[in-house]
Amino acid sequence: MIAYSRNIPLKYEADVFVAGGGPAGVAAALAASRLGKRVFLAEAQGMFGGAGTAGLVPSFAVFGDGVRILAEGIGREVREAACPDVPIDTKWTPIRVEDLKRTYDRLLAESTVNYSLFTSVCDVVSTDGHVDYVVLTAKSGLFAVKASVYVDCTGDGDLCALGGGRFEAGDESGDVMPATLCSLWAGIDYGRVTLGDGARLEDAFRDGVFTYEDRHLSGIFHTDQALGIGGGNVGHTFGVDPLDERSLTRSIMWGRKSMLEYRRYYREYIPGYERAEPVMTAGMLGVRESRRIVCDYMLNIDDFVAQSVFEDEIGRYCYPVDIHVMTTDKSEYSRFQKEYGSQYRYGKGESYGIPYRALIPASFDNMLTAGRCMGADRRMQASIRVMPGCFITGQAAGAAAALAADSGDVRRVDTASLQEKLASLGAYLPNRSK
Q: Residues 118, 261: one domain?
């Protein structure tokens, strides 16, 4: 062990500090700033948007339940600005990554949010469940930020964990879903594509094309059919520990190597892909699951089944339970198909409520969370984790942080007042208290 200490500058003071500039973090920062609060947003990558930009995830999941749009407000604003030519009720919306980057840039540049890219949280100093300040690291060195309320939108629950807060991770054994290294592809002749992505996997397995017999192939989504460009959500990095940098290193290197196997598969087995080329892989792994912060309420699978309604509801969502295969065993793919395809999938107009309490970490009085690391059990996390769900919970966390900024206590936020502020931001709240 090494004892290390130094004096660092207090560089920023704000009403609300947001860690992580993915969809949840951007929504939280914009919501709090639009409600008149001073906001500082720190993002570790060189761009906002998280998985949808730095991670090259090729498409947005559903924004609505087939009847109405659920990710209203900031979520719809981002979606319509980045994809203006695609109807909002499209099931899977292709992402043109540079358009999405510029959308986030513009929204933040036009706001009052103070923000910094290439900036990571490296420590959280707290006293008796109250965050005193956070320590950030950037090119300028270490510095501190003090705020009244802190919002963890890191996806991995880093803010909570660094402060000593409680969290859960993975299944009963601590194992998490495999990640995917997403990619951009060119040279696809979409006019000749007649087979589904996985149509000839078994042939390729017999021919020894793949190192692993991974039957869960989400596929290559068209992002520009005229130019033959697609976004790849192909392959899994089994056994990854997203909370260990050595494991992440091995996994992303394997992901890059595995693109050669998928290149051969698509070129030799799927018509229209004879000249397909993976021209770029993401700079970060598409991590689906890591920490789940223990919150005052843990949204759970019973809430999904019951389509629960909550008095402190801050939004509703509807994506199926999407726990990817954990191994290459055939039974795992059958399990996924059953859960995702029918057992935990809604019909038109069906959704579940999200309570404000699921955004309040149990370990702190002045911290909120949103996005992938919010309070949920494993199955519900596998539904709420996608980008539209992150917009919903991020917007709510930002509004709540604005209301809590004066008192510094997130549990003193009045539900009716929160719902009123969310409604002013455009949120869909059919069960709002009157």
A: no
